[in-house]
Amino acid sequence: MDAVQKANSGHPGLPMGAAPMAHALWTRFLRHAPNQPNWPNRDRFILSAGHGSMLLYSLLHLTGYDLSMDEIKNFRQWGSKTPGHPENFLTPGVEMATGPLGQGIATSVGMALAERYLREKYNRPGHNVIDHFTYVIASDGDLMEGVAQEAASLAGHQGLGRLIVLYDDNQITIDGSTELAFTEDSCAKFDALGWHTDRVDGMDIEAVSGAIARAKETTDRPSLIACRTIIGFGSPNKAGSESSHGAALGPEEVRLSKQALGMNPDKEFAVPDDVRAFYSVARSNGEEAVAAWDAAMAAYATEFPAEASELRTALAKALPEGWLSALPSFEKADATRNQSAQIIQSLSEKIPNLLSGCADLGHSVKTPIKNESSMQKTTPTGRNINFGVREHAMAAAVNGMTLHGGVRAFGGTFLIFSDYCRPSLRLSALMECPSIQLFSHDSIGLGEDGPTHQPIEQTMSLRMIPNFNVMRPADGNETSACWRLALDSRETPCALLLSRQNLPILSPAYAPGHPAERGGYVLRDAGDFQAVLIATGSEVALAVEAHEALQKEGIATRVVSLPSWHIFERQTKAYREETIPPTIPAVSIEAGTTMGWHKYADVCVGLDRFGASAPAETLFEEFGFTVANVVATVKSVL
Amino acid sequence: MDAVQKANSGHPGLPMGAAPMAHALWTRFLRHAPNQPNWPNRDRFILSAGHGSMLLYSLLHLTGYDLSMDEIKNFRQWGSKTPGHPENFLTPGVEMATGPLGQGIATSVGMALAERYLREKYNRPGHNVIDHFTYVIASDGDLMEGVAQEAASLAGHQGLGRLIVLYDDNQITIDGSTELAFTEDSCAKFDALGWHTDRVDGMDIEAVSGAIARAKETTDRPSLIACRTIIGFGSPNKAGSESSHGAALGPEEVRLSKQALGMNPDKEFAVPDDVRAFYSVARSNGEEAVAAWDAAMAAYATEFPAEASELRTALAKALPEGWLSALPSFEKADATRNQSAQIIQSLSEKIPNLLSGCADLGHSVKTPIKNESSMQKTTPTGRNINFGVREHAMAAAVNGMTLHGGVRAFGGTFLIFSDYCRPSLRLSALMECPSIQLFSHDSIGLGEDGPTHQPIEQTMSLRMIPNFNVMRPADGNETSACWRLALDSRETPCALLLSRQNLPILSPAYAPGHPAERGGYVLRDAGDFQAVLIATGSEVALAVEAHEALQKEGIATRVVSLPSWHIFERQTKAYREETIPPTIPAVSIEAGTTMGWHKYADVCVGLDRFGASAPAETLFEEFGFTVANVVATVKSVL
Question: Is A323-497 in CATH node 3.40.50.970?
Fold first, then answer.
């Protein structure tokens, strides 16, 4: 109440109503180490209803994380560690950024998948080195979001017994009673999805504790505990009403609430000594848990040195030594989706915890690792994940697996469906979580499926997400380079945009240090070039053909392949201007929107309309992706 | 089979497996008029599983729509009316574009909402002038998508008794058995959502017919009929397998299938005479239905002339005469979301079927029409729609209401959550469906909620969608202008981007013909200007301040307000170059990504990183949206 009041901004209702359930969870169940927030075997706690951030900050402060009372007082202010919604990269103990509803619960499914995979793969009798739960507090808003429903269906299918969701069922949404829009029988729905469900009085700590205990005992299914709570509990005039949801209570109501709760109304930011003492055991408990785990890992390493070494490397979010040698070089024309498949196969042999997922397009995006099984409840160490037609939950789950650590997972679908996962893609960038997505069928080259399936604005609009690395390789060797960049990335998510159709080999044989690893480079050159052709992916071949045609006419041009704007823009200014000299006319060629290209190009060959259903060759021809049109365009700028 | 085989591309499996249920529906239940595809009281039929387009084309051809056998033979070819996925703007009888899974079923919910609203509002005892059903064929992929689940929950809450979904439960997805990823109990789930559910043998026409009849009798709830089918039915070697899903069967398998089905294997594109005769009654039946409806409307008009006139105008997708006079002019600084609220209120009195929706942010986006009730199953003529925290389903439902006609609906949420609805926004643009969305809290001006809630790339990335009109008004008068453009739009969806914070009045008093209705215009000028400042929305005020500061230093500049790129780019070249002279240095100012702005500007004042949690004024200051920074930037280009 005090922090929200001081900021005069924020959400007091959820922290006040969900405090009892959070108290039960954090003081009786959660295994964590406040002085080692990144301890790999900690239970994960996700506040999916991120607007209740002050609940999380209170818990972190009380249990001894590095989050001082000054930070609490600085809620929602510039430079504080207590932003309006939780941000994992700012605040120790925050597992992920939440706020966009549904993302927390969906990401948690990925964390639970990663935990189970590692547990089943590495534990040995008497050695439970991976052994934790994933807990979520979710709101009605979370449960209404499609991404959460996709994820819940997936979690039920997978039987994720270590995933426990506490549903803060306060019957209030921003606009009023949940009766306005949300009257489904949530428990019955989750039952139908294969979950264990329970319904308790969320204001009763014993009742919540009992339900959590029962959920922990239910090992074959994820658990939803619907906790009936009172939003803004304690506030005499605002409890149970949407008025406590998203605005400070007001100074007088804060006083009245403190009185009603038996607290001193004159004190602000006061933590009673007994409360502080009660919570402070979390630190020593955490130290003991970490020490016990260290000992367990040592014993494990003695008996299973190879497994322990592999696991330690994975938990450190490192890759096995020598993995770069797995990246192939290519000599033959092929679709980059096929070349990517070869790369995946080769990498999968060097990187034991590389997990491949796809949203029911495995045959098309070519994601499955051969000779590995599907990850299912009966085969939890399978390395191919069938996400179903759930692109959004897939992207969120990949974020969860990547944040969890120990595995390196990627997802796959058609580029057009990146629109379906966009909120999770953006969140990965914000969280500095290096998730990887493969987006194939990356242009009108998709052909007959037509405009509903043909990306136009997707490539550029993904490039616009801050800290998001879009890579569109022109051939197999660039594809290897892009895979290298993706796996090397520590804080930036990456998307590889792959062609359906065959592309010729144009770039040098792949070896680490391939010029594409600088994001953009000169692919073809001619002395005293009069224009620069800048292209990506499948259009690089067209640029090269046009370059050759112009050469015959005595017009010297340079071809720059620009697979990654993100990486190129992080090169030195000297390199960038050497590659694309600002004083020379430039023409961009990309089978997508021209918007954005004016940054580099004077004239753009692109597509500012929807595509059409026809064979790919027809489409490229009809839409001007021809040597003749590029040649004419170049001449127009000279 | 023949069409897919001739194209050597497409999806034979669904049309073959779902033919029996489609036959039952189209020959025994569907009320439609092949020679009047836009008859307002037709039953709507949506093939949500749009990849099965050849099923729909077959039905349209057989029942006598303007879709010749030559078009069928031209499946998936350039210029045909039979694209890979159905496109409403190309093919008579196609209600909407489908293909991106989940969109069809979600859009149908909007159609059913519109039908119920009109039926309850306009019908009178003995006069059932609005009286139709909305039928959907959906696949497992549709049901897995989050947008469909949001929409199903909403439909159950709303008790949409005229919505009937046939679920093509063929147990096969692209990657194999649904056992791989989709094992929920769909009927139990839909039960929990408040639906009537039924399970039948989908290959049994009588069983399907019985289930449809029962669903029609269930008037208080939407219906899901799970029809167990056999994908690729009739193909001896591919039926029941994913191999029949997304590729031609092959010439030999086509022959074998025809033999197995008792057809002549040597004949291609053959329609037996008895089949043609059986289906051809649809045309005369349709003519009779339309004639009966015309008579009913005439009788209705006699008894209820005012209602009939209002309804006719609405069904013609026209607005009542004189509606333009409802658009207010503004004199006082205010947030454009508040000014939009005033506009909505005023318009709602002139436009009787203007419906306002919001995804649980009504208080913030300021969408609700005062003195109108919430649209609920007990109050179906309420004009405020509580979509719940279901942005994606909201956008799809608005598309459905707009496509249905008779109502003009808009949705509302924060701009950041446009990412959640992006597939439906794109689809509205592709479908040439003039849906309207209000996106408020349109920049870091949102303040303390922080980077998860602050749009950066959203404005520009929406601008990139072909045929999508993004409007970001600078003040109340521009807001009126943008509302006018939105309501006048016939084929282009519009989004109004609205500020949370107050903005001064800068533009002329509003009257139709306001300069903002040209998309961009000169707001402030100075003789012999040396630079042009181009801004949108809240940054226009900053541009004006900088212009004045520069003026004091003797530097003459022009300020261009550019609320709509889409409209501006449709003005004459002369007007555009007169407004933004290509030879004068230009600086853009927009609190969002700079990508895309190089089209108009030499230097950009923008934000190419995520925002932060702090009061809005702090953020604008810290991120360089200051007069000093703009002045310095202008000087840098001179």
Answer: yes
